[in-house]
UniProtKB/TrEMBL annotation:
InterPro entries: Ester_Hydrolysis_Enzymes (IPR051532), SGNH_hydro (IPR013830), SGNH_hydro_sf (IPR036514). PANTHER family: SPORE GERMINATION LIPASE LIPC, THIOESTERASE 1/PROTEASE 1/LYSOPHOSPHOLIPASE L1. It comes from Leuconostoc gelidum subsp. gelidum. The keyword Nuclease does not apply. The chain crosses the membrane at residues 7-25. Residues 54-238 form the SGNH hydrolase-type esterase domain. This is Lysophospholipase.
Length: 308
């Protein structure tokens, strides 16, 4: 009887140890969420990714002196190299489009709709032209406070339009994650003393962040550091402000200067921004946007490493 009891106890101990070892082994094995990129793609058994980018000029790649379609071409290449998968990238960016115009194009173009339906991952830029329209409309506001008040009043309209755009996208694809960029202030180096303009951009960025969170499978990608470019430190920005103050003369018309800059008619001093138009990122700026996007996509890789 004792011998049988010892055998039973030994069996239970061995079984328990085996169960513990199995659990520990399972816990240490990487999942699609935690694995390194190439391992994650293998675990997900994904060999091809359909990437759709849509939006405005930032998606189209305006200002890219390397001709790589801005962040769109760069993120496609980065996914290919990091995850060792083939990437089919469809770029539906169009310069000048506001959020409602992006929706109109999606609603009217079957090729656009088909690409969105097939997408594993969707990336969107929106809000820059909506905000620019608001700024140009109110460029002659008497004070910065008045201008910000006008921008605030336009926030609700933009949120409604962006929400409609998200609903339109989800009409064609309910599963793919949507990554949306925030915007930046290309006017900063010309008007560093106008902190209200940074605040106005952040007001619209808040809308992007809020709407994408409401989507439940959407993610916000910050790009606000494009505002400062090479002026990385607070000390450098203060120095820039002092230089701008010195250049201000009594006969200078600040309203005309603002309009000229908004229309891309002045020379750029931000090395992350294209010297062609004083507004869009150059290759350095688009490299930054790509890095920002990849960082968020990497964290959420299990959401888009899915067989379509």
């Amino acid at each position: 009887m004792r011998k049988n009891l010892k055998i039973l106890i030994a069996f239970i101990v061995v079984a328990a140890l085996g169960m513990v070892a199995f659990i520990l082994l399972k816990q240490t094995q990487p999942s699609v969420k935690t694995a390194l990129p190439q391992k994650a793609a293998k675990l997900a058994k994904v060999k091809r990714i359909n990437l759709v980018t849509l939006g405005d000029s930032l998606t189209e790649g305006i200002g890219d002196d390397k001709g790589e379609q801005g962040y769109s071409g760069r993120i496609a290449k980065k996914i290919e190299t990091q995850y060792n998968v083939a990437v089919t990238m469809s770029n539906f960016g169009k310069a000048g489009d506001r959020s409602d115009q992006i929706q109109e194009r999606l609603n009217a173009q079957p090729k656009f709709q088909h690409a969105v339906k097939q997408a594993n991952v969707i990336v969107l830029t929106s809000g820059g032209n909506d905000l620019q329209q608001s700024l140009l409309k109110n460029v002659f506001a008497k004070t910065p406070t008045d201008l910000t008040a006008a921008v605030v009043s336009d926030q609700a309209t933009y949120q409604t339009k962006l929400t409609r755009l998200f609903h339109e996208i989800r009409t064609y694809n309910r599963q793919a994650p949507i990554f949306i960029f925030g915007n930046y202030n290309p006017l900063f180096v010309h008007f560093p003393q106008r902190k209200d303009l940074n605040q106005d951009v952040q007001l619209f960025n808040t809308i992007n962040s809020h709407v994408v969170k409401q989507d439940k499978n959407g993610y916000y990608v910050g790009s606000f550091d494009l505002t400062f470019g090479q002026y990385r430190s607070k000390k450098m920005r203060q120095s820039l402000g002092q230089q701008a103050a010195k250049k201000t003369t009594e006969n200078q018309n600040s309203d005309q200067a603002m309009t000229a800059t908004l229309m891309g008619e002045t020379h750029v001093k931000n090395t992350w921004i294209s010297q062609t138009d004083n507004y869009h990122p150059n290759s350095i700026g688009y490299n930054y946007m790509t890095t920002q996007l990849y960082h968020v996509m990497r964290k959420e890789q299990e959401k888009w490493l899915i067989k379509h």
